[in-house]
UniProtKB/TrEMBL annotation:
A family per Pfam: DUF6763
Annotated region (Disordered), positions in chain: 70-102
Protein name per its UniProtKB record: Uncharacterized protein
InterPro entries: DUF6763 (IPR046651)
Organism: Microbulbifer thermotolerans
Length: 102
């Protein structure tokens, strides 16, 4: 079986630790592959060492957004409709907008 080639957005599993990670960047200048684990931790591997890593291709986890502090459900709920900040303003909070007290 051929060793998986690193591609941005692809998920891999470290077969020694069982950890899942996503390739988030490939730095051709410095010869590194940058990855992010499910807990949000960021790591880096030397591109030359990639073929020797004990990893296999993996499916993205059910909730791949967990590293960003939100679940997919929370993220969807937050993007349904942005709140209009003007809806929270009260007329009484501005001088000159209230009816005069009698």
């Amino acid at each position: 079986m051929a060793h998986p080639k690193p591609d941005i957005g692809d998920w891999y599993e470290d077969i020694d630790s069982g950890e899942l990670f996503e390739v988030v960047a490939i730095d051709e200048v410095h010869g590194t592959v940058e990855v992010q684990y499910l807990d949000g931790a960021v790591g880096e591997f030397e591109r030359d060492h990639w073929p020797a890593l004990p990893i296999v291709d993996a499916e993205p986890p059910e909730d791949a957004n967990i590293a960003f502090g939100t679940t997919a459900h929370e993220q969807d709920a937050n993007t349904v409709e942005p709140a209009n900040p003007l809806d929270t303003l009260e007329g009484e909070s501005f001088t000159g907008t209230d009816e005069p007290d009698h």
